TrEMBL record:
Keywords in alphabetical order: Hydrolase, Signal
Single GO molecular function: hydrolase activity, acting on ester bonds
Family the UniProt entry places it in: Belongs to the esterase D family.
InterPro entries registered for this protein in UniProt: AB_hydrolase_fold, Esterase-like, Siderophore_Hydrolase_D
Record-linked SUPFAM superfamilies: alpha/beta-Hydrolases
Signal peptide from the UniProt entry: 1-50
Name of the protein in its database record: Esterase
PANTHER family for this protein: SIDEROPHORE TRIACETYLFUSARININE C ESTERASE, SIDEROPHORE-DEGRADING ESTERASE (EUROFUNG)
Amino acid sequence: MAWIYASGRDVKHVAGANACLRTLCSASFPGWGARMRLIVLSLLLSAVSATPLMAAEPASQPAVASPLAIGETFTIESRALGETRRINVYRPKPWGLDPKTPLPVIYMPDGGISEDFLHVAGLVQVLTGNGSMRPFLLVGIENTERRRDMTGPSNVAEDRKIAPRIGGSAAYRDFLRDELMPQVRQRYPTTDERALIGESLAGLFVVETLLQEPTLFNSYIALDPSLWWNRSALLSGAGKQLPSVARSGARLFLASSGQPELAASSARLAAVMQQASPATLVKYQPLPEETHATIYHPAALQALRTLFPAPPPASP
């Protein structure tokens, strides 16, 4: 008698088949001739021999995953900062936009992939896609020492405790003006229109740049800026600097959260600007329902719609 052999997960099936074979071979069945017994054995062998073949078929392997690319990234060796900085770039692709069309540029500190770049890029994508905003190139600067780069000097001891190094905003501005902007112009088709967006300490840097070098950007977006820095010295001296800001033609979108100290300082800046340079302040938007941690996305949505609306569709 021939036996059926298998291994692994097929053993149980084969054991049962062998038991049936023993029964058929040893038992006597009235009315069964040799021919009938042979037919039954053949059917049993065919059924069992197919089982290992089906069970042995390898499971399909999952497809190899590829990185999800939403833009480009490059590094730049900065003499102004004395370090290498990573830059992330997103160019929207709304229907009908020629890839060679020059675009205005939004520069954003806190522009790392694990920082604010992805959600702001999402806003640019959806707003340009639905026709709410003109297409802009988004350039994010990944942080290395955020509290160094976003702050000016401070005479306040508590301020100097927040990081090993502070007061590097002037060098960071040099980096933007003299190193990053020329690189962006070289790499991408751009117009001369530029904007700067930042929240918290980056919002402080936005306001400082507006007051100290207003022509560096055309539009400024300051979200819940940390104007408390250095006992609000930037805010206290704003009145003297606003005449030059007014002459520059720069525009500001300012927003504040429900955090009392930040809301009060932003409201104070808005009042000073309304008096000394009303054309500069395009909009002051208090968002008391937002916290300092949640304000960036909803405020940026309003800012992009307000400052950069898409032109109305042409009449047929």
